[in-house]
Design goal:
Order of helices and strands: HEEEEEEEEEHEEEHHH
Strand order of the largest sheet: 4-3-6-7-1-2-5
Bound molecules: calcium ion
Largest sheet: 7 strands, mixed
Helix content: 10-25%
Strand content: 25-35%
Shape: globular
Number of domains: 2
Oligomer: single chain
Number of strands: 12
Number of helices: 5
Radius of gyration: 21 Å
Protein backbone atom coordinates (compact mmCIF):
# COMPACT_ATOMS: atom_id res chain seq x y z
CA UNK A 1 0.00 0.00 0.00
CA UNK A 2 2.71 2.39 1.06
CA UNK A 3 4.80 1.38 -1.93
CA UNK A 4 1.91 2.08 -4.33
CA UNK A 5 1.41 5.47 -2.76
CA UNK A 6 5.05 6.43 -3.17
CA UNK A 7 4.95 5.22 -6.79
CA UNK A 8 1.92 7.38 -7.49
CA UNK A 9 3.50 10.39 -5.83
CA UNK A 10 6.65 9.92 -7.88
CA UNK A 11 4.75 9.76 -11.14
CA UNK A 12 2.76 12.82 -10.14
CA UNK A 13 6.00 14.63 -9.41
CA UNK A 14 7.46 13.54 -12.76
CA UNK A 15 4.35 14.64 -14.58
CA UNK A 16 4.22 17.98 -12.78
CA UNK A 17 7.82 18.51 -13.76
CA UNK A 18 7.02 17.69 -17.40
CA UNK A 19 4.10 20.06 -17.26
CA UNK A 20 6.16 22.89 -15.87
CA UNK A 21 8.91 22.18 -18.39
CA UNK A 22 6.65 22.37 -21.40
CA UNK A 23 4.66 25.36 -20.28
CA UNK A 24 7.61 27.67 -20.65
CA UNK A 25 8.05 26.76 -24.34
CA UNK A 26 4.50 26.90 -25.66
CA UNK A 27 1.55 29.06 -24.79
CA UNK A 28 -1.10 27.05 -22.99
CA UNK A 29 -4.51 26.74 -24.61
CA UNK A 30 -7.96 26.59 -23.25
CA UNK A 31 -10.16 23.53 -22.69
CA UNK A 32 -13.58 24.51 -24.05
CA UNK A 33 -15.62 21.66 -22.63
CA UNK A 34 -15.34 18.43 -20.63
CA UNK A 35 -17.93 15.67 -20.44
CA UNK A 36 -17.35 12.67 -18.20
CA UNK A 37 -19.51 9.77 -17.17
CA UNK A 38 -19.30 6.18 -15.97
CA UNK A 39 -21.12 3.39 -17.73
CA UNK A 40 -20.51 -0.10 -16.39
CA UNK A 41 -16.77 -0.18 -15.59
CA UNK A 42 -15.77 2.40 -18.19
CA UNK A 43 -15.21 6.08 -17.45
CA UNK A 44 -15.48 8.09 -20.66
CA UNK A 45 -13.99 11.58 -20.87
CA UNK A 46 -14.52 13.74 -23.94
CA UNK A 47 -14.78 17.37 -24.93
CA UNK A 48 -13.54 20.23 -27.03
CA UNK A 49 -10.37 22.29 -26.82
CA UNK A 50 -9.31 25.61 -28.31
CA UNK A 51 -7.75 25.56 -31.79
CA UNK A 52 -4.18 25.90 -30.52
CA UNK A 53 -4.39 22.82 -28.28
CA UNK A 54 -2.75 19.75 -29.86
CA UNK A 55 -3.09 17.31 -26.98
CA UNK A 56 -4.68 17.28 -23.56
CA UNK A 57 -3.78 15.74 -20.21
CA UNK A 58 -6.64 13.98 -18.41
CA UNK A 59 -6.42 13.33 -14.66
CA UNK A 60 -8.87 11.05 -12.87
CA UNK A 61 -9.18 11.67 -9.14
CA UNK A 62 -11.26 10.10 -6.38
CA UNK A 63 -14.73 11.65 -5.98
CA UNK A 64 -13.43 14.13 -3.39
CA UNK A 65 -10.71 15.22 -5.79
CA UNK A 66 -7.91 14.44 -3.32
CA UNK A 67 -6.38 11.22 -4.68
CA UNK A 68 -5.00 10.97 -8.20
CA UNK A 69 -5.92 7.54 -9.59
CA UNK A 70 -5.11 7.61 -13.30
CA UNK A 71 -3.77 9.96 -15.94
CA UNK A 72 -3.47 9.92 -19.70
CA UNK A 73 -2.52 12.30 -22.46
CA UNK A 74 -4.52 12.17 -25.66
CA UNK A 75 -4.28 13.95 -29.01
CA UNK A 76 -6.90 16.47 -30.12
CA UNK A 77 -8.42 15.71 -33.54
CA UNK A 78 -8.96 18.10 -36.47
CA UNK A 79 -12.36 19.07 -35.09
CA UNK A 80 -10.64 20.12 -31.84
CA UNK A 81 -12.27 17.20 -30.01
CA UNK A 82 -10.65 14.73 -27.63
CA UNK A 83 -11.90 11.51 -26.09
CA UNK A 84 -10.49 8.79 -23.88
CA UNK A 85 -11.69 5.92 -21.68
CA UNK A 86 -10.48 4.56 -18.34
CA UNK A 87 -11.26 1.27 -16.63
CA UNK A 88 -12.82 1.96 -13.25
CA UNK A 89 -14.56 0.05 -10.46
CA UNK A 90 -16.37 2.84 -8.65
CA UNK A 91 -19.22 5.10 -9.66
CA UNK A 92 -18.02 8.63 -8.83
CA UNK A 93 -14.88 10.50 -9.82
CA UNK A 94 -13.48 13.98 -10.27
CA UNK A 95 -11.95 14.58 -13.70
CA UNK A 96 -9.55 17.39 -14.56
CA UNK A 97 -8.44 18.25 -18.08
CA UNK A 98 -5.79 20.74 -19.22
CA UNK A 99 -3.76 21.53 -22.30
CA UNK A 100 -0.77 19.15 -22.27
CA UNK A 101 1.40 22.26 -22.50
CA UNK A 102 0.00 23.47 -19.19
CA UNK A 103 -2.59 26.10 -18.45
CA UNK A 104 -5.64 25.99 -16.27
CA UNK A 105 -7.65 22.86 -15.54
CA UNK A 106 -11.30 22.37 -16.27
CA UNK A 107 -12.86 20.16 -13.60
CA UNK A 108 -16.03 18.06 -13.76
CA UNK A 109 -17.67 15.34 -11.69
CA UNK A 110 -18.14 11.97 -13.38
CA UNK A 111 -21.02 9.88 -12.13
CA UNK A 112 -22.41 6.51 -13.03
CA UNK A 113 -25.29 6.78 -15.42
CA UNK A 114 -28.44 6.09 -13.42
CA UNK A 115 -30.63 5.94 -16.49
CA UNK A 116 -33.12 8.46 -15.19
CA UNK A 117 -31.72 11.58 -16.86
CA UNK A 118 -33.06 12.28 -20.36
CA UNK A 119 -29.62 12.93 -21.84
CA UNK A 120 -26.65 10.61 -21.46
CA UNK A 121 -24.05 12.13 -19.22
CA UNK A 122 -20.98 10.82 -20.98
CA UNK A 123 -21.69 11.86 -24.56
CA UNK A 124 -24.23 14.64 -24.36
CA UNK A 125 -21.70 17.12 -25.77
CA UNK A 126 -23.05 20.66 -25.54
CA UNK A 127 -26.66 19.48 -25.27
CA UNK A 128 -28.60 20.75 -22.29
CA UNK A 129 -32.22 20.97 -21.29
CA UNK A 130 -33.66 24.30 -20.19
CA UNK A 131 -36.61 23.16 -18.08
CA UNK A 132 -37.87 26.70 -17.47
CA UNK A 133 -38.05 27.65 -21.15
CA UNK A 134 -38.85 24.14 -22.35
CA UNK A 135 -35.92 24.11 -24.80
CA UNK A 136 -33.35 21.49 -25.73
CA UNK A 137 -30.34 23.78 -26.22
CA UNK A 138 -26.83 23.28 -27.56
CA UNK A 139 -27.86 21.37 -30.69
CA UNK A 140 -25.22 21.85 -33.40
CA UNK A 141 -26.42 22.39 -36.98
CA UNK A 142 -26.58 19.25 -39.17
CA UNK A 143 -27.16 16.94 -36.18
CA UNK A 144 -29.62 14.25 -37.26
CA UNK A 145 -32.47 12.64 -35.33
CA UNK A 146 -30.45 9.41 -34.93
CA UNK A 147 -27.41 11.34 -33.67
CA UNK A 148 -29.62 12.97 -31.05
CA UNK A 149 -31.08 9.55 -30.20
CA UNK A 150 -27.55 8.28 -29.45
CA UNK A 151 -27.22 10.96 -26.78
CA UNK A 152 -30.51 10.16 -25.02
CA UNK A 153 -31.38 7.57 -22.39
CA UNK A 154 -34.92 7.21 -23.73
CA UNK A 155 -36.54 6.59 -27.08
CA UNK A 156 -37.29 9.89 -28.81
CA UNK A 157 -39.38 11.12 -31.68
CA UNK A 158 -39.03 14.47 -33.40
CA UNK A 159 -41.99 16.38 -34.81
CA UNK A 160 -41.05 18.88 -37.51
CA UNK A 161 -42.13 22.47 -36.99
CA UNK A 162 -42.66 23.11 -40.72
CA UNK A 163 -45.37 20.48 -41.35
CA UNK A 164 -46.04 18.76 -37.99
CA UNK A 165 -44.96 15.36 -39.37
CA UNK A 166 -42.56 12.98 -37.64
CA UNK A 167 -38.94 13.39 -38.73
CA UNK A 168 -37.10 10.26 -39.92
CA UNK A 169 -33.80 9.07 -38.47
CA UNK A 170 -31.65 10.81 -41.12
CA UNK A 171 -33.47 14.14 -41.00
CA UNK A 172 -31.49 17.10 -39.72
CA UNK A 173 -32.80 18.89 -36.65
CA UNK A 174 -34.21 22.39 -37.13
CA UNK A 175 -34.85 25.12 -34.59
CA UNK A 176 -38.50 24.91 -33.59
CA UNK A 177 -38.85 21.14 -34.03
CA UNK A 178 -40.22 19.30 -30.99
CA UNK A 179 -38.36 16.38 -29.40
CA UNK A 180 -40.56 14.01 -27.42
CA UNK A 181 -39.10 11.56 -24.91
CA UNK A 182 -41.01 8.28 -24.66
CA UNK A 183 -41.18 5.82 -21.76
CA UNK A 184 -40.84 2.05 -22.13
CA UNK A 185 -44.51 1.79 -23.08
CA UNK A 186 -44.04 4.37 -25.84
CA UNK A 187 -45.98 7.04 -23.95
CA UNK A 188 -44.76 10.63 -24.15
CA UNK A 189 -43.07 11.77 -20.92
CA UNK A 190 -41.54 15.13 -21.86
CA UNK A 191 -41.47 17.44 -24.86
CA UNK A 192 -38.98 20.21 -25.64
CA UNK A 193 -38.47 22.67 -28.48
CA UNK A 194 -35.18 22.11 -30.25
CA UNK A 195 -32.81 25.06 -30.37
CA UNK A 196 -30.09 24.67 -33.05
CA UNK A 197 -27.33 27.17 -32.21
CA UNK A 198 -27.29 29.85 -34.93
CA UNK A 199 -30.32 28.55 -36.87
CA UNK A 200 -32.63 31.51 -36.32
CA UNK A 201 -35.01 30.87 -39.25
CA UNK A 202 -35.52 27.17 -38.46
CA UNK A 203 -34.31 25.59 -41.70
CA UNK A 204 -31.65 23.51 -39.94
CA UNK A 205 -28.60 25.23 -41.45
CA UNK A 206 -26.55 28.19 -40.27
CA UNK A 207 -26.00 30.65 -43.10
CA UNK A 208 -26.28 34.27 -44.18
CA UNK A 209 -30.09 34.13 -43.95
CA UNK A 210 -29.79 33.71 -40.18
CA UNK A 211 -27.51 36.74 -40.05
CA UNK A 212 -30.11 38.74 -41.99
CA UNK A 213 -32.84 37.72 -39.55
CA UNK A 214 -30.77 38.93 -36.62
CA UNK A 215 -30.00 42.17 -38.45
CA UNK A 216 -33.74 42.78 -38.98
CA UNK A 217 -34.32 42.13 -35.30
CA UNK A 218 -31.53 44.52 -34.26
CA UNK A 219 -33.01 47.19 -36.58
CA UNK A 220 -36.45 46.42 -35.10
CA UNK A 221 -37.86 45.56 -38.54
CA UNK A 222 -38.83 42.08 -37.44
CA UNK A 223 -39.57 40.43 -34.11
CA UNK A 224 -37.88 37.14 -33.34
CA UNK A 225 -39.30 35.28 -30.38
CA UNK A 226 -39.07 32.14 -28.31
CA UNK A 227 -36.82 29.33 -29.41
CA UNK A 228 -35.86 31.21 -32.63
CA UNK A 229 -34.54 34.14 -30.59
CA UNK A 230 -32.75 31.67 -28.31
CA UNK A 231 -31.05 30.10 -31.37
CA UNK A 232 -29.51 33.47 -32.21
CA UNK A 233 -28.35 34.28 -28.69
CA UNK A 234 -24.78 33.11 -29.23
CA UNK A 235 -23.00 35.77 -27.19
CA UNK A 236 -22.17 34.52 -23.71
CA UNK A 237 -24.47 36.07 -21.12
CA UNK A 238 -26.48 38.14 -23.62
CA UNK A 239 -30.28 38.28 -23.38
CA UNK A 240 -30.87 40.38 -26.52
CA UNK A 241 -29.84 39.68 -30.13
CA UNK A 242 -26.97 41.88 -31.28
CA UNK A 243 -24.39 42.48 -34.00
CA UNK A 244 -22.02 40.26 -32.01
CA UNK A 245 -24.32 37.28 -32.68
CA UNK A 246 -24.14 38.07 -36.41
CA UNK A 247 -20.36 38.11 -36.21
CA UNK A 248 -20.33 34.70 -34.49
CA UNK A 249 -22.46 33.27 -37.33
CA UNK A 250 -20.21 34.91 -39.91
CA UNK A 251 -17.15 33.29 -38.35
CA UNK A 252 -18.97 29.94 -38.42
CA UNK A 253 -19.84 30.32 -42.13
CA UNK A 254 -16.27 31.30 -43.01
CA UNK A 255 -14.90 28.41 -40.96
CA UNK A 256 -12.89 30.76 -38.77
CA UNK A 257 -14.53 29.48 -35.61
CA UNK A 258 -17.31 26.92 -35.65
CA UNK A 259 -20.23 27.29 -33.29
CA UNK A 260 -19.59 24.49 -30.82
CA UNK A 261 -22.01 25.29 -27.99
CA1 LIG B 1 -30.99 28.79 -40.72
Amino acid sequence: MKHAFIKTMMSVAAFTFLFAGFSSEAKAGEITSVNAGVEGEILTVSGQAAEDVLSVAIFVYSADGKTLLQMESVAVDEKHAYSDTFEVKGSEYTVKVADYNGGSFKTVKAEKEDGTSLLKKFNRGSLNIDETAGFLKGVIAKMTVSELQDRCNYEIKVIKAKDSTQASADDKLCTGDAVKFLDAAGEEMDSYQICVSGDVNGDGVVNVEDMERIQKSVLKLELIQGVYEQAGLLTTGAVKLSVTDMEIIQKDILGIRKISE
